[in-house]
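Incident log, structure service

09:12 report received: a user says their structure output differs between two submissions of the same chain.
09:20 pulled the input from the user's history:
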Amino acid sequence: MNKDLFCLLGNPVDHSLSPAMHNAAFRDLGINGIYTTMLVRDGELENSISALRELNVRGINVTMPFKEEVIKFIDGIDAPAREVRAVNTIVNENGKLTGYNTDILGGVEAVLSEINDLKGKKAVILGKGGAGRALSYGLGKRGMKTLTLGRTEMVEDNLAALIDDADLICNCTPLGMTKGFTPVPKRLLRKKMIIFDAVYGNGVTDLISDAKEIGCRTVDGLKMLVNQGANSFKLWMGVEPNREVMLKAANDGFIKNRDSKWRNIYFVGFMGTGKSSVGAKVAEILKRKFVDTDIEISTQTGLSISEIFKNLGEPEFRRIERDEIEKSCRESGLVVSPGGGSVLNFENVSEMKEHGSIILLKANADTIYSRVKAEYSRPLLEGENGGIDKVKLLNEMERRAPYYLLARDIEIVTDDKSIETVAGEVIQKMEVVE
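09:34 re-ran on a clean worker, output below:
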């Protein structure tokens, strides 16, 4: 049986620390939940929300660039989120999706770790996006005087005058995600300032590093991440998670992301899309080991996949398949072709994302039917007189569509393409991801 699903929507999401953080909290409290990521490309947000409704997701986090747009596709929103015009947390209550903004409290809690009394002090917030507005709102409610600056107002001469008397400077822009870039030149910093950088993806940012050298007190983005995550968790589950457990998992996840150079490549998709043949070709080109889980399962049991379904049943097949995917996650540098139904188990999806990138191969129904219609080894789709029943095929494709949408990191269409062409596309796109 699937665990309850929780999910992060955004683009990019491939190096997010949220899954490590929330899954550690679930384990710590003995909660039967799984948290994973869902890549959403431009124009896909409505369809992605619909897919998560269909999968009965219990809770959603929303990150860049969808915190504002997502409001159009949910059923309600609380007052603070409405005021800052941004949602980063969604709760599913009996099919009704309600939006909240835990960045507000998460940011305030991070600042309070360094300033006990906010009233009357001045904060300059860099960035007018969702995170900047949330922090400005939260600090303002605690009595701080806040000044929020957009990119055009952050030119050095203007910035120097505006921050000179600031008690707190908060970077809520993406500047700093890349080494060598900082929103505030070091020469403008003063020892009396407290510097908060919401960016956390690269560890110690240049802004935080410069501030420490000057002697400023600093707040890193990991504190805000853990705090907003813990407050999301409370909205979903009604209990307070252990924030130290979440912080340790986030730190461990950061180290793993930073040091991971040889992640696995997983091919998923409906039968007939070319998972095994393309996977084998990619493994050959990259000189990696190739694993086909169906072959591994047949070797292990001494039975064909059809015989396993017939004699042992689908639940037993899925259990063995789960074991094989777990086994692949204990190795690195593999190219793996799991069965087409592997994504029906949220734990499989979560683990494959944690240990590699998931490539979804897609083809239209006519292409798939033409490729598999004469086969007698597809137990879920067999017709009464052998071969493939097209109605069953169409129904199963529709049932699995939201699971594939949840799982994929990269999507490639294989209609009318050779194995070599698809393999070349995979390698080209993987260079962007890895």
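09:41 both user submissions now match this output. Likely a transient worker issue. Closing.
09:42 reviewer note: The domain at 264-433 is CATH 3.40.50.300 (Rossmann fold). The chain has three domains: 4-100+228-259, 105-225, 264-433.
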